[in-house]
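Q: Convert this sequence to structure tokens.
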Amino acid sequence: MTHSHGSSLQEVRSDGRVLSVSMSPTHTFSKTAEKSISLLKGFGVEGDAHMGRNVQHLSRVAKDPSQPNLRQVHLVHAELFEELSGMGYSISPGDMGENITTSGIRLLSLPAGTRLFIGASAVVELTVLRNPCYKLDDFRSGLMVAVTGRDREGKLIRKAGVMGVVVESGIVQPGDTIAVEVPPEPHHPLESV
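A:
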């Protein structure tokens, strides 16, 4: 299967599935699991507090409300919950504020600009890493350290998920397939902004 990406065709892999979808109309840390969510092109998750063309995260609004919203959709890989379980944490989908909990995709290894084709029509383009913050510790003591690590060179590894923007609208629900389209090289790693 191939999809058009700019002027070149990229191979698309069907690697994963949607495990759970969540949203919250208010700026709560955790989000409530839903039967489905609606992704709106250029805005994010319909009805979610972080929906909008411009930044919606309160700390970023305070700095500059005109910034583009690169965090319209938050995705976390369910494999992180398994890793955290081994450290004694019981985390469920939506607990860490994600909109989409995935299974079978190594989200953190994907480059910026990767497109996720989710379900029948939704497309999310990955923009940045989620930057773990103190609210993780407010939710579960020590969680912020648990979702970070260091690589061999001592560089910080952020494991709390990825953020993206909606490039094609669609309904997303548990069980939907996720196809991954990596952008043309050169690849740039997702970074915390």
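The longest strand covers residues 8-23.
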